[in-house]
Amino acid sequence: MTSQVRGPQLARLLGQWHALPGRRRNPDYAALAAAVRGLLADSRLPLGVRLPAERELADALRISRTTVSAAYRELRESGHLASRRGAGSWTMLPGTHRVASTGLWTPQDDRDMIDLGVAALAAPTELLPAARAAAEDLPRYLGGAGYHPTGIIELREAVADGYTRRGLPTSPEQIMVTSGTQHALDLVLRLALAPGGGVLVESPTYPNALAALAARRARIATHGLALDGAGWDADLLLGSLRQGRPKLAYLIPDFQNPTGHLMPAELRERVVGAAHAAGTDLVVDESFVDLPLDGTALPPPVATFDRHSRVISIGGMSKAYWGGLRIGWVRASAPQVQRLAAARVGVDMASPVLDQLVAVHLLAEAPAIVTARRAQLAARRDALADALAQRLPEWRFTLPRGGVTLWAELDGPISSALARAAEEVGVRLAPGPRFGLDGTLERFLRLPFTLPVADLIEAVARLAAVRYDLNRAGRAQWREPAVIA
Known about the structure:
By secondary structure, the chain is an alpha/beta fold. 39% of the residues lie in helices and 13% in strands.
């Protein structure tokens, strides 16, 4: 059965659709149509959903029905709406489009596109030698069935040693290897969260974590992060745990995605204590823990302060090594790991042995690889910051001390509109609302600094050009192949 979005729901998603700054405003119907296309672009409005009747949406937005009718007509003409008399209108997309890794629907032909929607580095040069060495190691595993639900022992030992070096003594029995960090989160949610359970998350936060929580039909509450300073308001965060008493809290304390904040040690300890008192399990995402920049000292792992098996740490090799190597892990108590392994059997059985052997060889070269990654990222971060200061001085940001992303506050609630316009000049963005729950965060934009310096500088130049022309054009001209956002 086709799902339907009601007028008040769509109005809430649209937010300030007609309030974008510019030297010349578009007609309201064109702005409304563009805002609906933006919702489709960043997946906040699914395909195949029936939109409200024209009168219902007009009442919800407090505008004339004529404006809604004209907007729907433009959406039909651009291929974003299919209507049938007496039956309603459904969201769709024009032909020759696909969904990209950012969640945005884009043309098949992506030549010359600078993709700032993905916060990940290209593979290191050490990957090929590691793959060759792994292939030579593989024969000793070929005599068995190849299923290792918790992971091969060499990799679990290597990951456990990494935690021990960080000051958190860990045994291989406390490690379970997964097919990436997202897979680790999914397995933890399957084990620890019943459908409809309460979860506390940061705002903004990682979009794919929100998607995983939505799949579990979680009741999500948020704790807002500040743009400046430490990011976390200790009183608000601890109060949310004590008063809300959620079943889980999902936190990214190490160079938080997308803001880049680093949680101080004192707050880590207090969060663990508050979680224990509230009966809340902490899921701590350590995806960026290997990437401090400028010699930034890392606080102890959150699990260091855990005495009651309340902290489950997840991490992986996507950020410091390569996203195409789908290796992640869970660190928890040994009994929790065994329960996770039992839950995994009904999902994917085990991670590929060959990929795990590649990971073992890469981790053996970790000091050299990670040191080079940090130097590379620091140079790219500084280049991006300099370009923004020169070309878009009205934008504000705090220079992150690690990780791979810069969280910029824009000079207006224009994030989704800017993302649509940027696609037309060959820059793909992940707009601010993708990192929240309710269509807010339109004043913010995540900018990864994982691409080469020349690409980052060129991307900022293109963004500066379209920023000041957002509303100069009249009605949008759609063409094939056209980027739909």
